[in-house]
């Protein structure tokens, strides 16, 4: 009674570069999206900021963050 399954040892390694590249592309896309939304936030006037329900200090804290965070 042999219940072992024959799984090739190379299967996980062959997907590793694609996973790494996919993770890198997703991280880059997220960083660009954060930078874009922060540029838009910087362009809002006082009325628009109050309509969003955020304070000026909240706005400045968000704008002071680097694009990767």
The biggest sheet amounts to: none
Given helix and strand content, the structural type is mainly alpha
Helix content: 55-70%
Number of helices: 3
Note the run of SSEs as H and E: HHH
Q: Give a count of the beta strands, DSSP E runs of length 2 or more.
A: 0
* Percentage of β-strand residues: under 5%
Backbone CA Rg: 22 Å
User: How would you describe the shape?
Assistant: elongated
**Termini Cα gap:** 54 Å
Overall pLDDT level? 85
Q: Which stretches are poorly predicted, pLDDT < 50 over at least 5 residues?
A: none
Observed structural traits:
3 helices, about 70 residues, about 70% helix
Structure description:
The model has no long low-confidence stretch (mean pLDDT 85). The protein is 70% helix and 0% strand. The radius of gyration is 22 Å and the shape is elongated. It has a domain at 23-64. It has helices at residues 11-42, 46-52, 56-64. It has 69 residues and is mainly α.
Summarize the structure.
With 69 residues, the protein is an all-alpha fold. The protein contains 3 helices and no strands.
Q: What layout of secondary structure does this protein have?
A:
Blueprint: H1 11-42, H2 46-52, H3 56-64
